[in-house]
Amino acid sequence: MTGADSVLLARFVLTRARAAGLDAVDLARSAGIGPGAMEETSGSVPGQCYPRLWELFERRVDMPHVGLRAAERHGMGELGMMDYLLATAPTVGEGFRAVGEFGSRLSGNRRVAVIAENDRQVTFAAETAAQGRGSEVAAQASFAFLTARARQAARARITPVAVTLRERPPRRQAPYREFFGTAAVDFGAETDTFTVLRHDLDRPQHSADPRLAAVLRRSAAVATLSSPPARAWVDLLAAELDSLRDRAETPGSDPDGANFRATVTLETVSLDDIARRLGASPRTVQRRLAAAGTSWTRELASARRRTAC
């Protein structure tokens, strides 16, 4: 995964993490994001960072349904134009469509799109090429965000017909069913999907504002996602190197990286090892480091000094 995500997505997770009592700056650093992410309102971060934030957030609060709780407590405006595109649309369905179209401009790695529909219901999927726990929690949060916002805007208890999630069945499934309001929440699915009655999608929104919605749609149509600054890849590499020490100190904390942890240490790690972890080629990693005025050898030496200290 070598694309990028809007810094707004990263900032949303960091804001929710801080509200949960976590150190947002430390969380950002551990995910490979510079300390200024909490203040930025534009720009992007490397595509690995957003799902990594969710994975770290979940691990530190020890709550598999952290995506549900984060979306439930989401404040208007935290996701910038996306919030207002959804809120000002005439109906719930139009709001979902606007979010799907604009959301694809906020991320080069994920989007929410309609995959099936009939006269009675519509099914949305959280599409992404990313794997791992962070990506699963990100999908959980996306569906929770749509549900919470639709209920607020329509002032109605909108309940999905069904929800399927790629994540493994958690020990406690009640929080998922309570949040979505249905027992039809299935885990271990091939795809993250969210099915809603067309009747609910046709509900008018009390926050609708046709004039503002038209202005926002025109702005969203020309919005583009900038490439992450060169320095962002140095932060991401540093976080990955530092995580080798963290995995060694916390056995079993990273099941997805178990084989990597068992065979690679900070003393033996190679550029090829790290490039695989970052979903890029060694040449791409070298090129990004060079653009930031540094090199693989220099960053590896810095990581080893941090460990020694």
Describe the model.
By secondary structure, this protein is an alpha+beta fold. It has two domains: 4-221, Alpha-Beta Complex (H-NOX domain); 230-308, no CATH class. Helix content is 54%, strand content 11%. The protein is built from 15 helices and seven strands. It has helices at residues 7-19, 24-31, 49-61, 66-72, 81-88, 92-106, 133-154, 174-180, 198-201, 210-221, 230-249, 258-263, 271-278, 282-291, 296-308; strands at 4-6, 44-46, 110-117, 121-128, 162-165, 185-187, 193-197. A five-stranded mixed sheet has the order 3-4-7-5-6. Strands 1-2 form a two-stranded antiparallel sheet. Helix 5 (81-88) packs across helix 10 (210-221). The longest helix is centred in the middle third of the chain and has 22 residues, at 133-154. It starts with a strand and ends with a helix.
Q: CATH class of the largest domain, please?
A: Alpha Beta
Low-confidence stretches: 250-262
The total of helices stands at 15
- Per CATH, what is the topology of the largest domain? H-NOX domain
How many strands in all?
A: 7
Question: In the residues, how many domains can be counted?
Answer: 2
CATH architecture of the largest domain: Alpha-Beta Complex
Return the string of H and E elements: EHHEHHHHEEHEHEEHHHHHHH
Span between termini: 32 Å
What's the gyration radius in Å?
20 Å
What summary fits the major beta sheet? 5 strands, mixed
Oligomer: single chain
Q: Strands across the major sheet, in which order?
A: 3-4-7-5-6
